[in-house]
Amino acid sequence: MQVEAQQLMGDATRSILAAAVLGVAISWIASAALDLHLHYLFRTVALLCMGAPLLLWRLAAYHPFNRLGIANRITLARGVLAALLAGLIGSGSEPRLQAAAFCVAMIASALDGIDGWSARRTGMSSSYGARFDMETDALLILVLSVLAWQFDKAGAWVLGSGLLRYAFVTASWLFPWLQRPLPPSWRRKTVAAIQTVTLVIVIATFVPTIVSAGLCAVSLTLLVWSFALDIAWLKRHASAVPAVS
After folding, report:
1. Is residue 245 one of the residues assigned to a domain?
2. Cβ(106)–Cβ(200) under 8 Å?
3. What is the pLDDT of residues 99-108, one digit of tens each?
4. Is residue 122 in a domain?
5. How many domains does the chain have?
6. Burial 66-92 (b: 16+ CB within 10 A, else e)
7. Going by C-beta distance under 8 Å and a sequence separation of 6 or more, which residues neighbour residue 211?
8. Rounded to whole angstroms, what are the CA distances from 5 to 12, 67, 172?
């Protein structure tokens, strides 16, 4: 088991370093192609450097294989794309930036779902992979919601789309019953997918503000409704289900 854990950490470290180097290279090219200030490159590099060590945290404990696997590598690619998008925060709202953000977001969104399918196809599903995928989804939604606001596609209220999940996690520190496991739900997955697709669409240059604001309002309403149902379920079962340690 010790040898397998060492093999896993070695494989994961190499994959993460390769992804980080690729992300830095792409951000450097993007800085030149989009005539961005060097601050974009610095922000992207900082995000990649902060995220890389976190991916190794508790990897061996929750990924019972001797290699990272194609599914986690796909999720890793999505994480790099999210970092490239996050680097655009504070860079302005010119049409060329909106077009670039839309293209990157489209790729990141298209890759969503492929990682889960790949994990099942290769027989390498793990709790680590599921959590990695979920956190990447949450980060992408947060970044897209900030860009939607930055590009004047909706008011500051659109940030709720990205912050709601983190507010829920923060609340769970105060109310432990919120940490209890939820049953699988297609409603939850569907609402999350709608949230991502909506935010990708609204940052496009060809979507007018009156349309984008309406789409964001509908998707945020669905998200609030979904969270409310989950919180109500957790409250009802607070004394029946053991808390997660």
Report:
1. no
2. yes
3. 999 999 999 9
4. yes
5. 1
6. bbbbebbbbbbbbbbbbbbbbbbeebe
7. 202
8. 10, 9, 31
Domain range spanning residue 217? 2-236
108: amino acid identity, one letter: A
Give 165's contacts (C-beta < 8 A, 6+ positions apart).
138, 141
Digit-coded pLDDT (tens) for 155-210: 999 999 999 999 999 999 999 999 999 998 999 999 999 999 999 999 999 999 99
Question: What does the alpha-carbon distance between residue 230 and residue 121 come to, in Å, rounded to a whole number?
Answer: 30
Structure confidence by residue, pLDDT tens digits, 67-94: 999 999 999 999 999 999 999 999 989 9
Tell me, yes or no, whether 242 lies in a domain. Answer: no
Residues 6+ apart with CB under 8 A from 38: 31
Residue 70 pLDDT: 95
Q: What is the CATH number of the domain that holds 29?
A: 1.20.120
Question: Cα(172)–Cα(178) distance, rounded to whole angstroms?
Answer: 5
